[in-house]
Amino acid sequence: MGFLAALIPASLFAADSNTVVTDKAPPTASAPSLVINNSDVCKSTASAAIQTQILGFASGITVTDENCERLKLARSLYAMGMKVAGVSILCQDARVWDGMWMAGTPCPYEGMIGDAAKQAWLDNPDAVPEGSDFQKKVSG
């Protein structure tokens, strides 16, 4: 019995931690891969993901570049011989409108060009694109 008592200790010790080890990885939210293969598209993409211990969320969006669309429309109209229509599309941007006005070549106004368009813009300043320096001078 003395030999057996030497092999088995009188007191046993347990671990002081309650850590449980499992063989599972934590959940992971993966952001979607958004691809636009055509370089002739006025869109860009963004995606994001967030993960907590309980809940994960992933999302992706496409964003339209309206200025890019405006340029493509104007080029297409100009290429088809619709030069006044192409310029009119560009004139929807206040910066272009101001540039045309300062250059002495006012944007077309409902089919009128040149001096007739200039007078029409002066008679209808509320039709000038919002944010234009001209519009600020007239209203201020």
Average pLDDT over all residues: 83
Beta-strand percentage?
A: 5-15%
Main sheet properties: 2 strands, antiparallel
Q: Runs with pLDDT <50, length 5+?
A: none
> How much helix, percentage-wise, in residues?
25-40%
- Continuous helix count: 6
How many discrete domains?
2
Q: Could you tell me the radius of gyration in angstroms?
A: 35 Å
Write down the secondary-structure element order: HEEHHHHH
Describe the protein's architecture and organization.
The chain has 140 residues and is of the alpha+beta class. It has 2 domains: 27-64, no CATH class; 66-131, no CATH class. It is built from 6 helices and 2 strands; from the N terminus they run αββααααα. It has helices at residues 2-7, 66-79, 83-90, 94-102, 114-123, 133-139; strands at residues 43-51, 56-64. The protein has a two-stranded antiparallel ribbon with strand order 1-2. β1 and β2 form a beta hairpin.
